[in-house]
Design a protein that fits this description.
The structure is a single chain. The chain is of the alpha+beta class and 307 residues long. Among the domains are: 2-91, Tumour Suppressor Smad4, CATH 2.60.200.20; 179-248, Histidine-containing Protein, Chain: A (2-Layer Sandwich), CATH 3.30.1340; 257-306, no CATH class. It is built from four helices and 21 strands. The strands form six sheets. It has a five-stranded mixed beta sheet, with no helix packed on it. A hairpin with a 2-residue loop joins strand 19 and strand 20 (294-298). The protein starts with a strand and ends with a strand.
Length: 307
């Protein structure tokens, strides 16, 4: 599956899964991909799947390639601009790319290069001063060298430096470049990202410790959600908890269940006769809860099975 990725601007990190055959893009909130950045028209253009290829059709504005020319035929991994926003078409599993590097205008450099200073005429006074400066510098170097020899001679072996005096100082620790978000801003961004990816089965709520994402997804939708959450954590820094309670609705249990017993002593009976109570872990899967109509497990992925 392909997706349309937003590389910069107000919606940086957003991705539109390309399910269907055409998608409208612009500043209008009713479109498939809404971009509210400078230079984006209400209905800027439309992306259309053309057999095995892709086409951009201009509407209120024109999509431009990295050289600033109008772009119609779009190739996978190609980057293009709508106003001030850069986007790219890429397979959903492909790594994200950086913004295109636009070559700077050489005009200013050329102008500076043309202004070659004219030759200067040296004078005897200038030559004399230069020689005097050289003599003075030689004397100073001799004095400094003598002082260094004397000070070095007074050092004991234990006090001599172990490293070269010209050793490069250690580089400062790298700073976290991710954008900091408060809880309200993070909630708004996550809701936008869920909406853009058509993940309506996932709900977002606030609790005492932060945000809670919950719901049940299947197949490709679960993969899209996991990539979305990973992208959010890579690009943003928060000082509160984001609790991921989204379950994989496909099941995928490593064992077969033959009997379900509810009540205060609820448990499961496996095909091999083993019994699994709340809190028990079998084959890396822990039984979390037995409700009316569903069973919840926890492991490498949260799982939910209907019964």
């Amino acid at each position: 599956m392909f997706e349309l990725r937003v590389l910069n601007g107000l919606h940086q990190g957003a991705a539109l899964p390309l399910i269907g055959d055409h998608w409208a893009i612009g500043a209008d909130d009713e479109l498939d991909l809404a971009l509210h950045d400078a230079g984006v028209h209400p209905r800027h253009c439309q992306l259309r799947r053309d057999g095995e290829g892709w086409r951009l059709e201009a509407a209120d504005g024109h999509p431009l390639d990295i050289e600033g020319h109008p772009l119609a035929d779009l190739q996978p991994h190609a980057q293009f601009a709508l106003g001030s926003v850069w986007l790219s078409l890429a397979p959903a599993e492909a790594p994200w790319t950086n913004l295109p590097i636009i070559a700077p205008d050489d005009g200013a450099q050329g102008a500076q290069g043309d202004e070659t200073p004219g030759p200067t005429t040296s004078s005897p006074r200038g030559t004399l001063l230069s020689r005097g400066a050289c003599i003075t510098l030689g004397v100073l170097l001799g004095v400094v060298g003598s002082a260094w020899s004397l000070s070095s001679a007074t050092l004991t072996p234990s006090a001599s430096p172990a490293a070269s005096p010209l050793a490069t100082p250690a580089a400062p620790p790298a700073q976290d470049q991710r954008a900091a978000l408060d809880q309200q801003s993070a909630a708004r961004l996550l809701k936008t990202m869920l909406s853009e990816r058509m993940l309506g089965a996932v709900s977002l709520e606030h609790d005492d410790q932060g945000l809670v994402l919950s719901g049940s997804l299947k197949g490709e939708s679960m993969q899209v959600y996991q990539r979305m959450l990973q992208r959010f954590k890579q690009d943003h820094r928060v000082d509160f908890r984001i609790d991921d309670r989204v379950f994989n609705g496909n099941g995928g249990l490593p064992f077969a269940i033959t009997q379900i017993i509810g009540g205060s002593n609820g448990h499961l009976v496996m095909a091999d006769g083993r019994r699994m109570y709340i809190g028990d872990r079998i084959d890396g899967i822990r039984l979390v809860q037995i409700d009316n109509g569903r069973i919840q497990f926890d492991g490498e992925q949260r799982l939910e099975v209907s019964w």
